[in-house]
Amino acid sequence: TLFRSQLNKGMAFTLEERLQLGIHGLLPPCFLSQDVQVLRVMKSYETKSNDLDKYIILMTLQDRNEKLFYRVLTSDIERFMPIVYTPTVGLACQQYGLAFRRPRGLFITIHDKGHIATMLNSWPEEDIKAIVVTDGERILGLGDLGSYGMGIPVGKLALYTACGGVHPQQCLPVLLDVGTDNEALLNDPLYIGLKHRRVRGAQYDELIDEFMQAVTSKYGMNCLIQFEDFANSNAFRLLNKYRNKYCTFNDDIQGTASVAVAGIFAALRITKNKLSDHKFVFQGAGEAAMGIANLIVMAMEKEGVPRKEAVQKIWMVDSKGLIVKGRGKLNHEKEMFAQDHPQVKTLEEVVRTVKPTAIIGVAAIAGAFTEQILTDMAAFNERPIIFALSNPTSKAECTAEQCYRLTEGRGIFASGSPFPKVSLPNGQTFVPGQGNNAYVFPGVALGIIACGVRHISEDIFLTTAEAIAEEVSDENLAEGRLYPPLSAIRDVSFKIAVKVVDYAYRNDLASWYPEPEDKESFVRSLIYSPDYDSFIIDSYSWPKDAMQIQDV
Per the residue annotation, which of 9, 55, 67, 85 is the catalytic one? Predict the structure, then answer.
């Protein structure tokens, strides 16, 4: 128990427990409550000045005492989320080889093809309900980090538990190592992954196919498989290939879409009009952009707008300029949003020509929303919507301060990574909203696991976006927030999970029966608690005569 992080209580073991478990003497002669342990962790945490050291302190705690780790995380989720997830997790991934302490997930390589089922047996837990898998090719906005990408599934699943209440023993982080095209890593003697170029094509596809089959054979068809940080070329292809065969979703496409659309729904309460009254320009046309655009179209269709008309309200700009009909080499996803318009090369020109009501940045190009673009947006619109969603903070299209200053406080701003409060010379103060996917995936995962959803439809992500927007109060909007405070994320996740469960049973997507009458109580009963278990042996005696020892 002392050496298993799921069971370890450290100095919270009572004397009786220490004696019964045979660990007396292995701990100092001191007995602490969990609250005091939290204070001890915080004291140690506060001695660290840089975020990577703070990340290592928290990860080491997770390795040592899991329940205390989640107690610390949930005690101030707003404070710790930027450390265990974006932006610090990006830095941690870049340094993963040096920060690596002990295994926290399963590393499956291209050389293990044909043996993945055997490899899953290496994982000590049997009852796996959720897997986050990456191949490390597009980690946040940082690019190909190969094996170092393991930090992302580990961080994501920590938030499944901290924000959603999914049991950590039911979560499995997986890194599929097929090599890396990152020259710096290939030439680094300390790199901990496969030192060859990425394997692509049929061999790669066979590895993913085998992985999906092995997982569902061992853990069941209801096992949730979340794809994370795959390159654009694979992300859409794999989502379309597997979405109707397995219980799977891609957070970069669907999770990002849900959280962005939730922010737009909240913004509509400020602009006081309908979604179909808006015109959107996207900086970037990759996974996130396509996901958001498709969900916006779906939401407009729900408003009664014909699909063709909805698509015409979405303009995409990629590295070659505006995506227009007749432009060569457009993939299927881009083709869908190609506009009938002359070629325009730069984002500035597109904004000036199209005069959008909203600009959404998802291409990880720092500073893409220039001073000119922000002042133009403020000139065209009373309340321009400006979403700088790229992660980490170093890749944001503009800062919160730039947005509020250049739009004279009229901009409706959201970002992917956190920004501090902004005070303008006129005395206005804004709290920028963070469009963090953590509002989406923990609640969605909890709901899907709770009722055994087999296939995850797009409707679930639209339902989630509506649920998040409903949680934004008028007070939040008044101070510039388009999302509920991160401190309320556990409540938001719980409400999303209940809505997902309700939606699943209404639409015959659930596989656990009978249907629970009280869905709130049903979901609440499944939520993980970081409270310590008691290890005192149940000790009692029988009546004396019943225990009498028979003698010869």
Answer: 85
The rounded distance, in Å, linking the Cα atoms of 481 and 492 is 15
What is the mean pLDDT of the segment spanning 93-106? 81
- pLDDT for 449 equals 97
**DSSP strand E in 228-323: where?**
248-250, 280-283, 314-318, 321-322
Q: Has residue 241 got a pLDDT over 90?
A: yes
Whether the model pTM is above 0.85: yes
Among 226, 218, 130, 144, which residue's Cα sits nearest to residue 178? Answer: 144
Specify the pLDDT at position 285.
94
Q: Is 20 in a helix, a strand, or coil? A: helix
Identified catalytic residue from 67, 156, 313, 395: 156
156 is catalytic: yes
- Given a cut of 90, whether residue 518 has pLDDT beyond it is yes
Active site residue 503: no
Please choose, from the candidates 157, 151, 138, the residue with its C-alpha nearest in 3D space to the C-alpha of residue 96. 151
Q: How far is CA 122 from CA 95, 101, 131, in A?
A: 26, 18, 15
Give the dihedral of Cα atoms 214, 219, 222, 224; nearest 10 deg. -70
169 burial (CB, 10 Å; 0-12 / 13-18 / 19+) is middle
Q: Give me the residue label for tokens 């080889």.
A: 97
Distances (CA, A) of 29 to 26, 32, 521: 9, 10, 41
